[in-house]
Structures are given as C-alpha cells and as structure tokens.
Design goal:
The protein has about 200 residues and is of the alpha+beta class. It has a single domain (about 10-185), classed as VC0467-like (3-Layer(aba) Sandwich), CATH 3.40.1740.10. It has helices at about 55-60, 75, 115-125, 145-150, 160-165, 175-180, and strands at about 10-15, 30-35, 40-45, 80, 85-95, 105, 110-115, 130-140, 155-160. Strands 1, 2, 3, 4, 5, 6, 7, 8 and 9 form a 9-stranded mixed beta sheet that branches. The longest helix is centred in the middle third of the chain and has 8 residues, at about 115-125. The radius of gyration is 17 Å and the shape is globular.
Length: about 200
C-alpha cells in the first residue's frame, strides 16, 4: 500500500473480466486486512460441494455422527465456502458482531472474523453468531501486489455490504456487488478501464 492509497479493510474487491487468474474469475472478496505489508481477504461467492458443513464439523471432531441431526437447520443448509487459494485447509468464519472471543477481529460495524474451533463449536450447538459464513482458505497478497493488480484494472473496489456477505445465494453475489456500485454486469467488458 503506497502512501496515497487508503486501506481496503472492510471493503469488497470485485474481479474484472480481464483479471486473467481463473482462481478469481467472477469473485467478490471481502477484505479483512490491508497494510503496507500486504493484504488478506475471503472470497464470499464460492462454495465447496463437499464436505458439507455437518461433515466438516464431524471431521474436526466438533460433532459426532449422531449429533449431526441436531445441527440448527440454518447451519445444516449452509455451504462451506472457498475463501481463497492460500492455506485451503485453514478455516475462517466471517460473522455478525453478536459473537466475540479473545481471538475475534472486528473488521467493521457489521462484520467480524474469527478463526478458532471455539466459534465452530458455538455454531454447531446453535450458540454462535446470528449470521456467519464459514470458509476454507483465504486470498493473500504480498507488499504492493494488490495495489499493482488494482492499478492494472484487475479489481474494482467498493463499499462492502453485509447482506451480500451473509446471503446464502452465492450465484447472485457478483452481480449484486456490481449493481451496488451502479454497474450493469452485462455492460462490463474485458476492455474496460476503471469503473
């Protein structure tokens, strides 16, 4: 991050069609941290087909097979997200601020990040945050890398919207994030400059 760029923490990065990196094609990334040393965010519109949340909790020994049936319906029906290509075995939870632990990072008024088994246990037992998105892996950038990608028109930046982050319909998040910026996704071309 150079001296004239503000922090992108708590904002969306929206992939441009000309990005050239299939891992981020049509993605929306919620930025969790951004400093001169680098940046970290979670892709919010991709999910894994397997494992499901219940199987994931069982793999982590948070639940036994018998306990899977007592998972809250909202948890059982949610999908495990793909947060990004870095450390794909590491779990992260973006969540509403009604759950806090010593390890919770408050990102903005509507969104916190916790990456502990404690929050997963609370979610599995119906005592977790009201809204949550569980993801494996994250998107990370080294010093100056993200700024270079933005200046090369790889990403648009915009205000984040927690209703998009916590919406279970991943297939509409990219278009909704663009429309929140006043951009018609159908008119966004690979040859576009800064929007």
């Amino acid at each position: 991050m150079n001296g004239d760029m503000e922090t992108l923490e708590g904002q969306f990065l929206i992939a441009m069609p000309n990005m050239g990196d299939q891992r981020f094609e049509r993605t929306v990334v919620y930025m969790c941290s951004h400093s001169p040393e680098g940046a970290m965010g979670l892709v919010i519109n991709r999910s894994l087909e397997k494992p499901g949340i219940a199987d994931f909790f069982e793999q982590l020994n948070i639940l036994t097979g018998d306990e899977k049936s007592v998972l809250p319906d909202a948890v059982r029906s949610s999908q495990l997200g793909v947060g990004g290509p870095v450390e794909p075995g590491r779990g992260f939870v973006l969540h509403s601020p009604d759950f806090r632990s010593d390890n919770t990072m408050v990102i903005d008024a509507d969104v916190c990040l916790t990456a502990t088994l404690e929050i997963l246990r609370a979610i599995a037992r119906g005592r977790g945050p009201r809204k949550a998105m569980i993801a494996l892996g994250y998107a990370g950038w080294g010093t100056g890398q993200l700024e270079e990608e933005i200046s090369s028109n790889g990403w648009l930046t915009s205000q984040a919207d927690s209703s998009i982050i916590f919406d279970p319909h991943n297939e509409t998040k990219y278009e909704r994030a663009l429309r929140n910026m006043g951009i018609n996704p159908l008119l966004l071309s690979a040859d576009a400059g800064h929007a």
